[in-house]
Amino acid sequence: MSDNETLFKQLITKAQDGDGASYTELLQGLNSFLKNYLRKRIFDQNEIDEVTQEILVAVHKSLHTYDNNKSFMSWFLAIAEYKIVDYIRSLKKHSNTVDLNSISNLFAVSNSDSDLKIDLEKAINRLSSREKDVLTLMKVDGQSINAVAKQLNLTEANVKVIAHRAYLNIKTYLGIRS
């Protein structure tokens, strides 16, 4: 178990029991971790600060959902990745220059994130074959909803519903509640 995993798991467990000092230490530790983590993915310091705050707010709101029988880093990084995707989407809305299909490097899993990779693989393996197909075509191959619908002989609405259910199933498996 990594040092971060051990420390953060101890702190969140105490924080869930009402220990304010542990909660403060947890947020400070996560803040430092996130600054380094995001620096590899986002190059504007102001944006790093903004995304860090969004992630910390999400952690605060989801604190009660953490199950101390599961990996803390997997739970935490899943929340972080959802917020990073939200950030990318907000860029897309404000600029036509951001290509969502080119963000795969944001989700490159390093050796230190191997627990998250294992948990994500387990979550994906639990999906139905249809959900796996849609997710693979959209997120791995970078195909549009329209292209996926044509390839799988589905309506665009059906592709959206299947993708949404796949995301929910992955979040449920990882213990993330919105």
Summed up:
The chain is mainly α. Helix content is 71%, strand content 0%.
Explain what you see.
The protein is mostly helical and 178 residues long. It folds into 2 domains: 99 residues, RNA polymerase sigma factor, region 2, helix turn helix motif (Rna Polymerase Sigma Factor, Chain: A); 53 residues, Arc Repressor Mutant, subunit A (Orthogonal Bundle). Helix content is 71%, strand content 0%. The chain is built from 8 helices and no strands. Helix 3 packs across helix 4, helix 4 crosses helix 5 and helix 5 packs across helix 8. The protein is globular and about 55 Å long.
Which structural traits does this protein have?
Rna Polymerase Sigma Factor, Chain: A; 2 domains; mainly alpha; 178 residues; Arc Repressor Mutant, subunit A
> Major beta sheet, specifics?
none
Strand percent estimate: under 5%
Can you count the beta strands? 0
Oligomer: single chain
**Number of domains as seen in the coordinates:** 2
Rg: 17 Å
pLDDT below 50 for ≥5 consecutive residues: which ranges?
95-112
CATH architecture of the largest domain, by name, is Orthogonal Bundle
Percent helix among the residues? over 70%
Helix run count: 8
Indicate the mean pLDDT: 80
> For this structure, what is the CATH class of the largest domain?
Mainly Alpha
Tell me the series of helices and strands, N- to C-terminal. HHHHHHHH
The dominant shape is: globular
CATH level-four homologous superfamily name of the largest domain:
RNA polymerase sigma factor, region 2, helix turn helix motif
Give the N-terminus to C-terminus distance in angstroms: 27 Å
In CATH terms, what is the fold-level topology of the largest domain? Rna Polymerase Sigma Factor, Chain: A
